[in-house]
Design brief:
2 copies of one chain form a homodimer.
Chain A (H helix, E strand, L loop, with lengths): L6 E2 L9 H9 L19 H18 L5 E6 L2 H13 L4 E6 L2 H10 L4 E7 L16 E7 L1 E2 L4 E2 L12 E4 L16 E5 L10 E6 L16 H6 L9 H16 L1 E2 L2 E2 L1 H20 L4 E2 L11 E6 L5 H10 L2 E2 L10 E4 L6 H18 L1
Parallel strand pairs in A: 1-15, 3-4, 3-5, 5-8, 8-9
Antiparallel strand pairs in A: 2-10, 6-7, 9-10, 11-12, 13-14, 14-16
Helix pairs in contact in A: 1-6, 2-6, 3-4, 7-9
Catalytic activity (chains A, B): 4-(phosphooxy)-L-threonine + 2-oxoglutarate = (R)-3-hydroxy-2-oxo-4-phosphooxybutanoate + L-glutamate; O-phospho-L-serine + 2-oxoglutarate = 3-phosphooxypyruvate + L-glutamate
Protein name (chains A, B): Phosphoserine aminotransferase
Cofactor (chains A, B): pyridoxal 5'-phosphate
Chain lengths: ~375, ~375
């Protein structure tokens, strides 16, 4: 287990920090002298209570979550939240959605089960987030996907809504990669399986004034007010996934990079990784990224070989070079490099080296 | 890590087989030479595809699931299913619920959001499952909790409904502890965190003719037809929990006991463990179990010290003797020993020895 691990560019479930995996393995049979694996602990016991409290405290500290926001540890992933958000927040009224890619489009479709949904703007095939949004003053909320995993489109700054309507962000694939400007956000949610931990854990951050308005058909287990009132233990939470997430939070807190520490270090490293990769793609006529530089994702970098007949060869040679899971999403094709928090700079350097080498040999 | 582990009587999340935990630890950084932890794999890649297919095939074999039942790997636990079942099956009509304890009572309450719910029978404080049920011919389904985790009440035989209405069983806390008579069941569900794996995975077995009738307000991620059509990958499934469950299925298949193998061995061992523990309780005037012998659970054995002033001493001495998590549910009080599949006979023998010893010293 001491050989270097390959670099894993999966879009999610995604690479986790190696020290976290090692600690999980070491503690598997006996967590802190308890005689139990974390998987075997009652969620109501003091051991897991300690784990949950530490995870929440560390996450609040990392993201500077204000006290009037509740942090909920839930299940169902982003697709679950596509229904759970409107069941809790829409009041059966109006919801405005800004479509910037596949995920926000899916969110709009699902919200139509519960609300009058309007597409306030649509990126279409332009590759640039629209500036003009048709917003309704009486909407219950405005939904954006702040990082589109499939399309590689990210809001570099969250919109500042001035019409008094709360903003909901689907932050699944860049949560914990950068700070969140909470003044602009009413609710944020995200699946854990990108930057945070195993699939099956969903994080929700909700401003307290948005609690208490769920539709009567909202299941109790997915009612934010009920979940909040029970400290995320109305039903049995995904305890092991929360434990792994807590270790990841500790890892982020301790990360040092470019004279920074914690989330600032992670963010700077993500900026540098993305700059390196986009520069390599833009500097070549062999590869192509089609997203406007103003809104390119730091996390998910879809790209294409201009000669797509080489796709299979590219993937096979990448794998042989220890660069895993680079195939693009089936709806888009081509390639995608997801370079989440756990991807070291060396991984992106290795990918860039491979891109140049492959171009020399096949260009 | 070679010292014997304590015996863990948690009601869930609960003890897992030690060989499974060891294998999970060993494969944590590199699953089968893939260079990835299972936590880090795309759910759409061939590696996880292999894991999911094997888990489903082994589970189908163990429980002899007929081909016209779909096996779904979902999220949200039993409390989530309390809403998800009526959203999928009730058609907004009538649902009959037989109350045999806390869990079936909760299920009835949640189903009222979606359907006209009638309590067909209620165990009350009798400790015996009622024989007379007031069933409606035009109900969409009849719900029972086939093992009540909190109350320690189990159906030793599933009811045979003769009025043409499907039976739904909440089998969370005895799933995979014994065979299921599928001729009597339309749908079975259960959280994994008792006999199967980590919390955060929910198993649903549904007869195909019951698919396709979800209410329009049912979230896509929880629509059985959608989940089935996407082979449990409409949203990202709890991949790591499914992997652990798959290892547990392998462990069950290989278990040998009393000349039996697989589920038959597990069941016989559960019968013997329960008989040993109930005999010790019944043979003492110091302890008491209040459930009628006709419907005592093989899995969850609530019991009381007649002198409840000794409760804290009992728990402290039990813990010191390596017998963990014996405290009863807060709504019931007293003690509870959950003796799921992973509990060896030696664990129950140790508990029985401790019961006798404690009685000698404090009786």
């Amino acid at each position: 287990m001491t050989a270097p691990r390959p670099f894993n560019f999966s879009a999610g479930p995604a690479a986790l920090p190696e020290p976290v995996l090692r600690q999980v393995a070491e503690e598997m049979l006996d967590w802190h002298g308890s005689g139990m694996s974390v998987m075997e602990m009652s969620h109501r016991g003091k051991e897991f209570g300690t784990i949950l409290a530490a995870a929440e405290a560390d996450l609040r500290e990392l993201l500077a979550v204000p006290p009037n926001y509740r942090v909920l540890f839930m299940q169902g992933g982003g697709l679950g939240e596509n229904a759970i958000v409107p069941m809790n927040l829409s009041r059966g009224g109006k919801v405005d959605v800004v479509v910037t890619g596949s995920w926000s489009r899916k969110s709009a479709g699902e919200a139509r089960r519960y609300a009058d949904v309007q597409i306030a703007a649509d990126i279409g095939k332009t590759g640039v987030i629209p500036r003009e949004w048709a917003l309704r003053d009486d909407a219950a909320y405005v939904h954006v996907c702040s990082n589109e995993t499939i399309d590689g489109v990210e809001f570099q700054e969250l919109p500042e809504l001035t019409h008094g309507v709360p903003l909901v962000i689907d932050a699944s694939s860049h949560l914990l990669s950068r700070p969140i400007d909470w003044r602009r956000v009413g609710l944020a949610f995200g699946g854990a399986q990108k930057n945070i931990g195993p699939a099956g854990l969903t994080l929700v951050f909700v401003r307290e004034d948005l609690l208490g308005h769920a539709l009567s058909i909202c299941p109790s287990a997915f009612n934010y007010e009920t979940v909040a009132a029970n400290q995320s233990m109305f039903n049995t939470p995904p305890t092991f996934a929360i434990y792994v997430a807590g270790l990841v939070f500790q890892w982020v807190k301790g990360l040092e990079y470019a004279g920074r520490r914690g989330l600032a270090a992670v963010e700077q490293r993500n900026i540098d990784k993305a700059a390196l990769l986009y520069a390599a793609l833009d500097g070549s006529s062999f590869y192509e990224n089609r997203v406007d530089p103003s809104c390119r994702s730091r996390m998910n970098v879809p790209f294409f070989l201009k000669n797509e007949a080489l796709n299979d060869t590219f993937l096979a040679e990448a794998r042989a070079a220890g660069l895993l899971q680079l195939k693009g999403h089936k709806s888009v094709g081509g390639m995608r490099a997801s370079i989440y928090n756990a991807m070291p700079l060396e991984g992106v350097q290795a990918l860039v080296g491979f891109l140049k080498d492959f171009e020399v040999r096949h260009g």
